[in-house]
């Protein structure tokens, strides 16, 4: 009886402690509040960019909901068409594309959009708006059928064409260094939005109970070096000799090979833990496979803002001059020391 009383008393104290702890812990800084407090750090800060980031976050919440119920309402699997890249579209690709386009049109801060899922520029009708967006609405969407992490990648530019007119390809072909903001949303065990406006990198985890993105990773800094290397082993024999030499060296050092076929997932892990992601040219894709404007450029901006590096094998990715909207490029991105070692082998 005495032991039972002690046990009940102990349990009550633990419960009270946990309750006190939950009450004492603040909810945290929401994405909206963070954007508002840091608005002065944005170039040309007049509020439009802040609202644009909120519009992207809203679309991310909607996509998160669709992904979580995908298996229940039959929106997994192929859609039956190919995109501009010649890749089979998944149902969720199409849904995510529609959701982001609607959010950006209704938000009113974007005059034009290019998407992996669309051949041409999407004109929003908001020709007085100052910004254009390049986006991969759902990267790695074929993984949804097996419940593997997928993501959204976006890049934002201030238009160079005159206000009041339709946006032009030149608005999107300014080059990676002209991005005013870039980010990604990772849909996984938790949903996290990571972005930069050129003043560091911040990450926000989605709190389902509140319906808010909460600051969880302030001022992200990637480790200088790492022990993770991410690449498609199936393409090994098609890689250039210097890439194969580097991969052999990674194996000799007993580095961990981690590759899930979802660019956002692989990049996010390596960004936080230290590592390198490689997608070299192959015989099938001699110019590379990843899209320069809405995959390589935004992730490279985030990488550099976090102290990491990104290269196409010959030059800094952000210095590559884009020539057309859906241009492809090789990508080597990750911890500075690892990228430098690979580049020294060329």
Descriptive key words:
346 residues, Fructose-1,6-Bisphosphatase, Chain A, domain 1, D-Maltodextrin-Binding Protein, domain 2, 8-stranded mixed β-sheet, 5-stranded mixed β-sheet, 9 helices
Structural commentary:
- By secondary structure, this protein is an alpha+beta fold.
- It has two domains: 31-217, Fructose-1,6-Bisphosphatase, Chain A, domain 1, CATH 3.30.540; 228-343, D-Maltodextrin-Binding Protein, domain 2 (3-Layer(aba) Sandwich), CATH 3.40.190.
- It is built from nine helices and 17 strands.
- It has an eight-stranded mixed β-sheet with strand order 4-3-5-6-7-8-9-10, with helices on both faces. The chain has a five-stranded mixed β-sheet with strand order 12-11-13-17-15, with helices on both faces.
- Strand 1 (78-82) and strand 2 (88-90) form a beta hairpin.
- Residues 21-25 and 75-82 have low confidence and may be disordered.
Indicate the topology.
Layout: H1 2-24, H2 31-37, H3 48-68, E1 78-82, E2 88-90, H4 91-107, E3 110-115, E4 122-123, E5 131-139, E6 150-158, H5 169-172, E7 179-187, E8 191-196, E9 201-207, E10 212-217, E11 228-230, H6 241-252, E12 256-257, H7 263-273, E13 276-279, E14 290-291, H8 292-305, E15 309-311, E16 328-329, E17 331-334, H9 336-343
Parallel strand pairs: 3-5, 11-12, 11-13
Antiparallel strand pairs: 1-2, 3-4, 5-6, 6-7, 7-8, 8-9, 9-10, 13-17, 14-16, 15-17
Which consecutive residue ranges, at least 5 long each, have pLDDT under 50?
21-25, 75-82
The percentage of residues in β strands lies in 15-25%
Radius of gyration, taken over Cα atoms and rounded to an integer in Å:
22 Å
CATH topology of the largest domain: the name is Fructose-1,6-Bisphosphatase, Chain A, domain 1
The largest sheet, given as strand count, sense and whether it forms a barrel, is: 8 strands, mixed
Q: Span between N and C termini? A: 76 Å
Number of strands: 17
Give the H and E element order: HHHEEHEEEEHEEEEEHEHEEHEEEH
Helical proportion? 25-40%
CATH architecture of the largest domain: 2-Layer Sandwich
């Amino acid at each position: 009886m005495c032991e039972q009383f002690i046990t009940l008393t102990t349990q009550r104290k633990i419960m009270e402690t946990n309750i006190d702890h939950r009450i004492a812990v603040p909810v945290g800084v929401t994405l909206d509040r963070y954007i508002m407090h840091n608005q002065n750090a944005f170039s040309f800060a007049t509020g439009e960019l802040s609202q644009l980031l909120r519009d992207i976050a809203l679309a991310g919440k909607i996509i998160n909901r669709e992904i979580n119920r995908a298996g229940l309402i039959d929106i997994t699997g192929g859609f039956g068409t190919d995109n501009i890249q010649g890749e089979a579209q998944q149902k969720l690709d199409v849904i995510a594309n529609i959701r982001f386009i609607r959010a950006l049109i209704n938000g009113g801060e974007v005059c034009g959009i290019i998407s992996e899922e669309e051949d041409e520029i999407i004109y929003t009708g908001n020709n007085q708006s100052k910004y254009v967006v390049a986006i991969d609405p759902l990267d790695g969407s074929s993984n949804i059928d097996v419940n593997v992490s997928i993501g959204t990648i976006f890049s934002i530019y201030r238009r160079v064409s005159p206000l009041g007119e339709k946006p032009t390809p030149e608005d999107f072909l300014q080059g990676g260094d002209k991005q005013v903001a870039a980010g990604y949303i990772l849909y996984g065990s938790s949903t996290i939005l990571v972005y930069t406006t050129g003043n560091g990198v911040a990450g926000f985890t989605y709190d389902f109970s509140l319906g808010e993105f909460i600051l969880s990773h302030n001022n992200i800094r990637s480790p200088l070096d790492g022990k993770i290397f991410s690449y498609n082993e199936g393409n090994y024999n098609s890689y250039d000799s210097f890439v194969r030499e580097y991969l052999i060296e990674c194996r000799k050092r007993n580095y961990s090979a981690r590759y899930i076929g979802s660019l956002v997932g692989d990049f996010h892990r390596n960004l936080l833990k230290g590592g390198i992601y490689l997608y070299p040219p192959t015989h099938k894709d001699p110019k590379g496979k990843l899209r320069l404007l809405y995959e390589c450029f935004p992730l490279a901006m985030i990488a550099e803002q976090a102290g990491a590096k990104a290269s196409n094998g010959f030059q800094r990715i952000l210095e590559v001059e884009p020539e057309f909207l859906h241009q492809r490029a090789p990508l080597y991105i990750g911890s500075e020391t690892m990228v430098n070692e690979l580049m020294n082998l060329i």
